[in-house]
Amino acid sequence: MDRSGYSWMLKLTIFFAAIICSTHREVVAQPTNDNKDQAFELEELLNWCSEDAQFTNVGSSDDNEKASCLENGPNYNVWFKFRASTENIQIVVKTGGSKGTMKFGYLGLFEEGGRALACDEYKDEEGDIGIVYNNMNLGNWYFISVDHPYNPKYSGSFSLCVTDELGYDYRDGATELLNLSNWCSANAAFTTKGASPDGVATPCLKKGPNFNRWFKFYARTNEIELKVMSGGEQGTMKFPSMTLWDAGAKALKCANYRPTSSTQCEIKYSGLTKRNWYYISVDHPYTESYLGTFTLCLNKGGQSAFKNTELISIKGSLLYNLYDPVKSQIFLQDDRGRLVNSTMTNEQGKFEFSELSPNIDYVVIVEKYETSHDIAIVQTNFEGKIIKHVFKEKDNIFKFKELPEDCHYIALLNCAEPGMIPDEGKVGIIGKIVPKDDPMGAKKYVHVYLYDSPKNLLDSTETDEHGKFIFNNLPFGESYLIRLKEGSNELYLEMLLVNDKGKAIMASSMSDMDENGFFHFARLPYMKTHLKLAAIDKIDMLGIEEGSAIQLNHIYFDPGKYRLLGKSSSELGQLVGILMTKPDLKIEVSGHTDNIGTRQFNLDLSEKRAKAVVNYLISQGIAENRLTYIGFGSLKPLSRNNTEYERKKNRRVEFKVIK
Fold it and tell me: What is the CATH T-level fold of the domain 171-299, as seen in this structure?
């Protein structure tokens, strides 16, 4: 064969090879999440990121909704879905370098029904696009679409990151500053590296926002001093800019770096409104070489910025002969001996320290104290419930301790010696009512009603000048309920049910009031009695299939803690009885919380609560190999967390049969 023949065959071979290669490029497998009904489920929503370039839209087709900011489409969209466990979500698609090859990306967020909620589009050929959305309904499904303009050469791989606990890159995830009194962060604790622009422009930067980070605080005074510092151990950021904002995103004051220094800026502002939220943004001009770490300092913003539901108060009275007020100065110190505050007793001998941090072991020092004085001091939570009372350490120094569990956390009455002895074979009820904001006082002339069922009134009385009331010589073995004529929102009540030996056998307080205003009694844990008071619903095992969840409605813990309260014993006793009579039964106990606090804290707390229930069952003779436990935190809500009523429904313990 001559040279021309070889040349002709070579050209023919190249032609067919080109056709084969071209055909191969066109037949590309579709991504598994090409269609919305096959959306990739995101099961982990706390600071989750895919592997670099894990996902792709190469070979994808158009289906369902388009991202709302995409002019024409959908084009090459792929889908993801998740079930909301909080109201917030942050979604970021990353491309470029090791993150992926897709270009000119679009990102859309949708409700399950298809309504578009949010969208973001490319700013450069490659880079990050992101969405922050904070109005999701807990438990609902949401969908994410990743797409680009109609040109197949833009298709490629990308990385995906999601979190439902927003970071301080966004105003909605601003870091809360709890201690504002002469406080500084650790050196170089914060950074602008990795930050993206968020919010409106600040007056102090010609262009921006650029790389801003966000903080917030709860004002307790009218003044605030803010300072950003870098350089040396304090950080590497250059030319800082800082802005103070109100809750409505209005800039109140801003400052740039000092002319003499490229590492500091400072704001002093005296127009704050107490009990309002304020925001701080830290940024710098748009030059990546200025990125770096920084230290933040604050002063004169108050002692702490805990939520109202976390703050505590200390209230007390100092009397002589039970009635005569004593004039004295009262000092409040922390457990390191530092002065927190001081005050004087008023004309009734009373004093109070309010809006205190719950994380300090306080010490009270009474300047003029004698052993002949009658002193009473308690700590109360935001509801006015007494949570601690004092003991005298020595001389005029008083410290706090938890209320006794074996007395159902009763503080106003003497559980050991209630002060009444019913006739033989009878029982009695003694109670005390005080104003919610004054546990050292007394609420007289409050009408109190006694029932043996919600529809059967037995008797009534009213409180005396000491706020006390009594129902004596009642039949033994009956169930009793108490109800007040006046609304109980402004009152605090404690009661004891006493036997004919003068011993308290049951107790009740504000946490034992049901939705209809009836106060139920709970058996004191150290008493063994057959009284069927405060009967609870029986645990119904009939018809329960393997894997079905059964909710325990009377398991109690202190807020934020995992120690079982004594009044949980009635329902747990039922569960023990069921497990004793069904020796082959195995169960899994699960704990659930509301969404107050961080996700990790709630996961840990719910697991510890579930474990506390399992430990109790083991202590009652149930074999450990029949029991498992798990904590879900706020991941499986029964209701939204917008109100206390809804949050209360979500705080629960359940068990399910696993065999």
Answer: Jelly Rolls (2.60.120)
